[in-house]
Write a structure and sequence with these properties.
Elements lengths: L2 H5 L3 H16 L5 H18 L9 H13 L13 H14 L4 H13 L3 H13 L9 H28 L8 H20 L2 E5 L2 E5 L1 H10 L4 E5 L4 E5 L2 E5 L1 H13 L6 E2 L4 H4 L10 H16 L8 E6 L2 E6 L5 E6 L8
Parallel strand pairs: 3-9
Antiparallel strand pairs: 1-2, 1-9, 3-4, 4-5, 6-8, 7-8
Helix pairs in contact: 2-3, 3-4, 4-5, 5-6, 6-7, 6-8, 7-8, 8-9
Length: 343
Amino acid sequence: MKTLRLSKLSEEELLDLEQELLSQRSEDMPMTGQKLVELYEVLYRKVRKNRDSEYQYILEEIKRKLLLNLVQYGTYLKTEMSQDDTLAKQTLKKALSYDRDIPQANYRLGFLSYKEANYTDAISYFENALSSSTSTFKLTEQQRYHAQLYLVNSALYIVQNTQSILEEQGEISPIPTAELSPLYEKIMKNNNYLSENAFTATSATGSRQCSPADVEEIIDYESNRLILYFSDQQISVSYRGKETSLSVNQGELLRYLLLFSSKDTPVTKHAFFDLFSNSNNNDEIPNNTYTQNITRLRSKLASLITGTTLIENSRVQKNIAYYYTELHPYTVIYRSDRSFILS
């Protein structure tokens, strides 16, 4: 689907195509995310330019959908199943081209810059993330704390690197190790905290923060639990050594059902508005969209655990609803500074 071809479609045709692409995303079809971004870009430009458009009233919703796909789905645009840091940087920078004041985009770009030891850019992105006053794509409390630590460490690394360069060039005398030790200790202390609290493991009994080594231990020694893992590479669910990959929407859907549903509190489609809605549906999600997504998720889970229904259906005021049966204990593992579409 080329942007040139999209530009020839009418606004109404683009909205019809949006619904088609959202259905394809539910079926895990490759490149769907990229196609949706291209569609929202063209649709946003068309409606914004045409002051007489009958769709002016959803202009901000179209922009929100565009930014949501760039910020939350950006790392998965190519495959829907695995992350790509290079693609993440491209999509996050594109999001900032539409709105420079997006905390989540600035935070993630800061984190990626920090990983690459590009500390000057990291400082700029983290400062923007922390100073933002926007009410959308806000940082979580954990992200704000991590951003402050990354910000301090980035500055300390720059001082450390500048010191080494000046010493090598003979422009200053080497500073005694004893005088530098507080600098090194601060960097190490922050790095140790970030490593030891890198992930959060949540179960029915509560949450705890853990290190990458702790995560491996959970996966190896708690295999009798259903483990939903949002790793740095992909989203997966496993049980007793068997594992299957999930798309972003499937991971979000399963996480929400595990953490927030029960037989007494089944979840209707309205809880998943940001996953399944299109730009012009007036807050309504087709029942078959919700049901089809649950059916595909059930199929994924059935490949791990046979003969057991993990997601049951119910009714809430005539609306179809679903809940996790709690037949198997679960653990949800994710980066402590990760944000979710469904909070």
